[in-house]
Specification:
By secondary structure, the protein is α+β, with helices and mostly antiparallel strands. The chain has six helices and 14 strands. The protein has a domain of 163 residues: ATPase, nucleotide binding domain (Nucleotidyltransferase, domain 5), CATH 3.30.420.40. Helix content is 29%, strand content 34%.
């Protein structure tokens, strides 16, 4: 029986399957062909948008679209926001997250042939109450039962020690697109015990990008007249 894990990331998402004692990160999207050799087909950008004809765009199609009608990092809004504006249209945050989970489910079926109906879903180490509940809710509304929620660095630590049965203590630093998370975990006789896990919100790659983009824009003469698309090209 196959077991699935979903990393619903701030900037990118991924799906892995555990079957017959082996783990495989699944093909989940269709990036430009020349990128596939680098594994980008196993990454689903957590981006939603829509095109000129209001057709919905997800993943690589949304990320690479030259349009201002798109949004990424919707997961960051779970703890604080109910609505978000994309272009001139307002959406529920949960609606966008649900659509992303549903698209991940469809992509896994189309690209890898698996029925992703239930999975363990990872969350930031400092994710609390409302954000945790909304992650589980949106996965369910997207057709994926969240069997459990697991801290992202804890999941990484368990994966790193899975093949090494020696008793050990592991510290994992998960510096992602949205957060900086750290977990210390003991692996003893095949049992994992989390000693501590914590994180810092808004200390990820997106924040570095934003700071660099702001500095470049402020340092470039005439940048005050740039459009949103022109500013996004700095990224």
């Amino acid at each position: 029986m196959a077991a699935f894990g979903i990393d619903f990331g701030t900037t990118n998402s991924a799906v892995a399957v555990f079957s017959d004692g082996e783990v495989e990160v699944l093909r989940i999207d269709s990036p430009p062909v020349e990128w596939e050799q680098f594994g980008y087909d196993r990454v689903f950008p957590s981006v939603f948008g829509y095109g000129e004809n209001r057709e919905p765009l997800f993943g690589w199609a949304a990320k690479l679209a030259e349009t201002e009608t798109k949004i990424e990092a919707v997961k960051r809004l779970f703890a604080t926001e109910d609505h978000v504006t994309v272009g001139d249209e307002q959406f529920l945050v949960d609606e966008i997250a649900t659509m992303l989970f549903a698209q991940i489910k469809r992509n896994v079926a189309a690209e890898s042939g698996h029925d992703l109906d239930r999975a363990v879903v990872t969350i930031p180490a400092n994710s609390r109450g409302r954000a945790r509940q909304r992650t589980k809710l949106c996965a369910g509304m997207g057709g994926i039962e969240a069997l459990a929620l697991m801290n992202e660095p804890t999941a990484a630590a368990m994966a790193a020690t899975r093949r090494n049965r020696e008793d050990q203590s592991v510290m994992v630093i998960d510096w992602g697109g949205g957060t900086l998370d750290v977990t210390v975990l003991d692996a003893i006789e095949g049992t994992f015990m989390e000693q501590t896990s914590s994180g810092i919100q808004r200390c990820g790659g997106l924040d570095f990008d934003s700071s660099i983009m702001k500095w470049l824009a402020e340092s470039t003469p005439g940048s005050e007249g740039w459009s949103g698309i022109e500013r996004s090209l700095l990224r």
